[in-house]
Amino acid sequence: MFNFLIDSDIAVSRFFQESVQRESAWVPAIRFFSDFEIFLTVAFLIGIWLYGAYRKDVDYKIASLDIFYAIMFAFAVYWALQFGLPIRPRPEAVSNIPPLISHLPDNSFPSGHAIFAGASVVAIGYFLSMPVSTAFAVFGVIMLICRVISGVHYFGDVLVGVIIGAILARIYISYRDRAGFKTAFHTVPLKIASFFKL
């Protein structure tokens, strides 16, 4: 069963990778969108924070902090997992298809971009609104498909990564109202920001 899943994953990934010719006019767009959701999320969080500062509404700043913390919590667990997960070589290491994006030849599983996308979409949906979260989900799916097409991940890497990111964001959400958390993670950053008029 396990071998069947791996073989299916490789077949689906190869289908995506072979769907775009390396000289295609789509290649620059694939390269651009392979990181787009991450940069969009960072710009969005800065924008929410500045909007909260402009409106003098601390709720927007707290939402920005919570989304940031959910993503960072997911990444902290991801880096810890890297020490215990089996190494899965990236597709370019075992395939004759050259990747569209230059990447370190490190562990392919799970995808860090997918963990980021899963955590950011869940956190944005919880702390802000579902319509905004849906827009980020669309850009996240585009980003992850581009990463499979570009040959730096298998489809299974991004699928598992999204699930891990979403679960870890939910774990963060469930712990954020515990005693002492808000003082350390909300009050202190807000006081520092207010000192700098942010």
Structural features, described:
- The protein has 198 residues and is mainly α.
- The protein has a single domain (37-195), classed as Vanadium-containing Chloroperoxidase, domain 2, CATH 1.10.606.20.
- Helices cover 73% and strands 0% of the residues.
- The chain is built from nine helices and no strands.
Question: What characteristics describe this protein?
Answer:
198 residues; mainly alpha; Vanadium-containing Chloroperoxidase, domain 2; 9 helices
What can be said about this structure in brief?
The chain has 198 residues and is an all-alpha fold. The protein has one domain (37-195): Vanadium-containing Chloroperoxidase, domain 2.
Give me the secondary-structure topology:
Blueprint: H1 2-18, H2 27-33, H3 36-55, H4 58-81, H5 91-94, H6 112-127, H7 130-149, H8 155-175, H9 181-195
Helix pairs in contact: 3-4, 3-7, 4-6, 4-8, 6-7, 6-8
The helicity comes to: over 70%
SS strand fraction: under 5%
Based on Cα principal axes, name the global outline.
Answer: elongated
> So what's the oligomer here?
single chain
* Radius of gyration based on Cα positions: 19 Å
Overall pLDDT confidence: 87
Helical region count?
9
Largest sheet: none
Structural class of the helix and strand makeup? mainly alpha
Which runs of at least 5 residues are low in confidence (pLDDT < 50)?
none
CATH level-3 fold name: Vanadium-containing Chloroperoxidase, domain 2
CATH architecture: Orthogonal Bundle
Topology as a string of helices (H) and strands (E) = HHHHHHHHH
Briefly, what CATH class? Mainly Alpha
Structure summary, number of beta strands:
0
Number of domains: 1
Cα end-to-end separation: 55 Å
